[in-house]
Amino acid sequence: MVNITIDGRKIKAKQGATILETARGLKIDIPTLCYHKELRPFGACRLCMVEVKANGKWKLTTSCTTPVENGMEIKTGSDRARESRKFAAGLLYYKYPEDKTVRETAKKLGVDVDEKRAATEQCILCGLCVRACREIVDVNALQFQDRGLGRDVEEPKVEFNPALCIGCGSCAFVCPTSYVKMEEAGGKRTIWNKVFKMASCKVCGRYFAPQEQLEYISRKTGVPMDKLMVCVSCR
Amino acid sequence: MSTVSFSSWNGKFVDNRKGTAKPVDVRFPERLNGSKFKVLMGWNGIVARDPNADIPSITFHYLKTVRKLSCGECSVCMIGIDKLLEIFRKMGSGKGSRKDLAAIRETVEGVTANSKCNFGGSSLSPVLDAIRSNEADFIALIEGKRRLTEKEYSVDVSAPCMKACPAKLDIPGYIELIRNFRFRDSLNLIRERCILPGVIGRACPAPCEDACVRVDMDEPLAIRLLKRAAADYDLEQGGSALTRPAKEKDEKVAIVGAGPAGLAAAYHLRSAGYKVTVFESLPYGGGMAAAGIPDYRLPKNIINHEIDLIRQMGVDIKLNTKIDRLDLKELQKKGYKAVFLAAGAQKGIKIGCRGEDEGYDGYVDGVEFLKDFSLGKKVEPRKKVVIIGGGNVALDCARTCVRLGFGEVEILYRRSRAEMPAHAEEIEAAMVEGVKFSYLSAPLAVVSKDGRITGIECIKMKLGEPDESGRRRPIPVKGSEFTLKTDMVIPATGQKPDISFLKEVKLTGWGTVHVDPVTYRTSVEGVFAGGDCVTGPATLVEALDAGNNAARSIDCYLQGKKFEREVRFKDIDPNETREQIYVPMKLAEKARVLEPRTRIESFVEVEGGFGPASAMQEAKRCLRCYRVIVWE
After folding, report:
1. Any domain includes A214
2. Domain total in chain A
3. Which of A87, A158, A160 to mutate: most B Cβ within 10 Å?
């Protein structure tokens, strides 16, 4: 445990925990779009800004990527932290004015939002799908594009590799804007425009997982395919 | 005294336009590539020589350049730049208003305070300098009295790590690709300037790490190990081939020496389509990387793999081909239009102690010792060996002797540990492996009996004033002579080129090949030289850089074009910065190393590399300190 001061409260916090985790444990509300508790923090959306005292000066930092340290002083609701969140939300709204989630978040953080515009779902490059695919599924079908000096890519995007995707749907599950769509009908699942054949349970006959996902699990774990062909409810 | 019109470099404003010329006591870029510039804008400010320089236009261009380096991963940097560019376009088309200046300020300040990395955190401040120093021009732009002009500006990009790297690798670039699990793309980016990534990823002194901005916060990025991770991962996946040239050219180029300089030049010339033949006297390629660096630091299969890839592109490497006399006419007759000399520097220099020329049994030069061992010569361990010198060759000899089972291994160095040129990690590794160090001791004479070494007479030294190398000069202490018992002595105090085969080419007083420092041309038409045979013994990465540049120079020569060297932040210090984002402390990932007791039993590689997961974790620590400058 470490001793920290958060919004004037002196508390003991778990060593190695981030400011965000600690604050949420104290029911302090900090907005996020690119955070998921099961995934490594990424610090992309810049909405979880707080102020931390470093060398006598208050500095802004993302609470999701900053671990608490003994003696740390933190302000989660200061004017500067709020302004900073509003600024980041404002820029997200500037870039994605039609995205529903961005609009809701921006409005909540004090940005003037034009309600009359059409509302859709857009990719805001939060990286949650990329991280879920890599860290949880260990498949790496999603990657940030190669950008940088001499590559002359105008708009960065997430690239989908259909050869690797097993259709598990983790990306759709974590996507904060619902941009990643997963549709299922008639024994077929469609995700990132790739169509997967669904396997049906040997016992109840219900479609329960893409064939490719079961094959992947079988390869990874060594469990034979016929054992995997039973759905969770019938096991 | 400077002749600038105004400057905001380093956040210090100097304005000499209104007749109130203040004495200039700030440092700012004076020259860029030797030529005068009109106006320069970079992460650290604006410097204008011409009072009529078009500041709004260079600012617009600067922002467009900065956008190309913004990674787009955080929600403020790239979007903020897009917003600024939109405001500039609006102002440039006469549709601006005074409110735009406030919007620019707000956006710049917001991006600077909220960005994820140092690039976003430090790149935009000069936009505010532009408005502050030239507000009238921006108002004229808003009022439609000026336009933004599209000009050709020069652009350069660096970072503290890139500037420190002799081969100027795009370090933040390849680290970012590792972070994003794009190991293959990362390796290809590395290969553009470092064709031996597995070798350099193991045996580079990594000056980039000393320059890393995190040095002052917690620990520098493990840049060398990240490079190695990109190479290792590729090798694990089967090893990707190098791209064969898109178009063949007719001209043939001869390269003397298959060390890092020769291989780098061979790769780039072959990529450009030339027919390249490399002549190597040893039975293997790699030069000093293979002959001088023992397996426990750099396993041979790593070098061999990287050389094989170059060979598979169509480079003809002729091994066991010693050139006794470089007959240029003969080469020209065979159709070689250019020659690149990269023969290295492997001849040990005399240490100036009595008896060194007597040919005693047990007196072997350091580089010779390592080379013989790498060629498979059997070395019988003796009771004791004394190695003279404080560089990496001395350390490599010592650690090799430990592994060969010598009873006692002692390094004699005439200065103190602080002055030792070997890498600190090498010294520490040798110490834990049991090598003894005697500092402030210099050899006077080899003591022998019946042609065999029995000891070495030495004298104690003390440190005086710094000499031309900046290190404190050792001075003998009178009457402090002593004798060490030993049955082997390995002098390893430095090397010089062995270029007796060169008859026509002009040499320097140091016995190195004389070249034009920009073009790598020697005194003979069509003959170029680079690497250790020009510089004297230096690092592998410096040799690679020479090979890279010489290849471009040779290409220009063969195509009848003028060769221009890259500017690369000449006279500009990328470490200077006005803004620093908050960085939570996080120590570097550690690679595992073999226990000293295990490692001295064999020549197995001591250091383990990063697996992909550790590499990606480590890559996350990079602060992306790219610095951009544009100028006209």
Report:
1. yes
2. 2
3. A87
Q: Structural domain of residue A91, as residue ranges?
A: 2-108
Q: What single-letter DSSP state applies at residue B514? A: P
Q: Within an 8 Å CB–CB cutoff, is residue B162 touching chain A?
A: no
**Contact residues on chain B for A68, CB-CB shorter than 8 A:** none
Residue B31 — pLDDT band, cuts 50, 70, 90? low
Residue B550 CB contacts under 8 Å (≥ 6 apart), including other chains: B261, B265, B340, B342, B520, B528, B529, B530
Within chain A, how many helices (H) and strands (E) appear? 7, 11
If you classify domain B348-496 with CATH, what class do you get? alpha beta
Q: Which long-range contacts (CB under 8 A, 24 or more apart) does B34-41 make?
A: B34/B570, B37/B631, B37/B632, B38/B631, B38/B632, B39/B631, B39/B632, B40/B629, B40/B630, B40/B631, B41/B126, B41/B130, B41/B629, B41/B630, B41/B631
pLDDT digits (tens, 9 = 90+) for B183-194: 999 999 999 999
B553: left (phi over 0), alpha (psi -120 to 50) or beta: alpha
Per residue in B445-462, pLDDT tens?
A: 999 999 899 999 999 999
Q: How far apart are the C-alpha atoms of B444 and B31, rounded to whole Å?
A: 49
B252-345+497-559 CATH, one of 3.90.180.10, 3.40.140.10, 3.50.50.60, 3.40.50.620 = 3.50.50.60
Residue B151: per-residue pLDDT: 87
Q: Give the number of beta-carbon pairs within 8 Å between A and B.
A: 96
- For the question of an ipTM over 0.90, the answer is yes
> What is the per-residue pLDDT across B198-215, written as a single tens digit (0 to 9) for each?
999 999 999 999 999 999
Chain B residues within 8 A of A42 when measuring between CB atoms? 73
User: What mean pLDDT value characterizes chain B?
Assistant: 93
Interface of B with A in 66-95 (CB under 8 A): 68-69, 71-76, 78-80, 82-83
Q: Which residue has the tokens 């795009």?
A: B170
Helices (H) and strands (E) in chain B, counts: 23, 21
Pairing relationship of beta strands A188-191 and B452-466 according to DSSP bridges: unpaired
Compute the average pLDDT of residues A187-208: 94
pLDDT band at B1 (very low <50, low <70, confident <90, very high): very low
Contact, B123 vs B85, CB < 8 A? no
* Residue B335 CB neighbour total at 10 angstroms: 11
